[in-house]
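hiii, so i know i said id send this last week but things got crazy w the move. better late than never?? heres the sequnce for the chain we talked about at the cafe, plus the structure i predicted for it. fair warning i was half asleep when i ran it
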Amino acid sequence: MPYLRMVDVQSARWAETKIKGSNDNQEICWREGLKLQQEGRVTKVYVHLGSSGMTCEDVSDWCVWFGKQLALLQKRGGAQVIMEKANFSRNQIGNHGVSTLVTDVFANFLPRELLLFGNNISDVSPLVKLLAMGTLRELHLSNNKISADAACRLVVVATSAKDQSGKYFYPIQGLKPLWLRLENNPICENFQIKLAENLCRSGRAIWKAVCFVDGTTRCNPSQCHCGKEHVPGIHLTYVGSNTLNRRRSMNKLLLERKGQHVVTTAQMVQDDRLDKLLGDQSLPMGNWERTSFFSAPPSINSINYPPLTKKTALE
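okay and structure toks below
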């Protein structure tokens, strides 16, 4: 079914939705960017305001205007209104603008796809609230000012969010991971380690919760193709190599980045701290050559163990 623009179906009511302080060109832009798709008694709303020069102040005005448009829509008999997609990318929206969007609009009309890339966002608290509700299918936040800690917070909340029955919201219906884009933010190079540690504290193993997408696989917003045994909760794009989806590669990264001491001994296999960090049963039975990234006791540091002849593959 073709889209219907609000300017087409409600042009006769223009005067009633005029916002004080806004100009006609601005409202024309808003109307051109607001489209509807009718499916029975369900009305799907699409907002396309990317590259429209919106500031935080403009967002506040738009929220008031959008509320009046929804009131008119419901007067016309819209039984159910769904926010299918909201695109506010490549604007000048900061933390206050995002907070206003979530509080005034998205709290009542949860979007399924939210595009906020190319803005000035650093505080993710409002977006954390959206993720905890489990309705988002895609969240685009690349090219903002999001720190590694804030990025970890988003991932941990999304992978931990559950419905009333205790089931995880993501992957959606157990099949489709959340598509989360965080590239080109000031995220440190040790982000993957920080993320693994944060997920561990929340009770999730990183390779069970996250699929790193780097463009080398067929993973897309609709389906995961990385070959994991379990469908991950999140597709995390361009902040780590797809090779990190394998236990062996993630083991190696964690060991190399954190390692201060090399121990080659079957005794160290009994130390399950790394196992807990990486997930249940991450290390099969057998002798291992391991670089411990935890501070080893002096008694172990001073012992020269003979090399092991048997090595067991990590996967």
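btw The first helix runs from residue 6 to 9. thought thatd interest u
miss u guys!!
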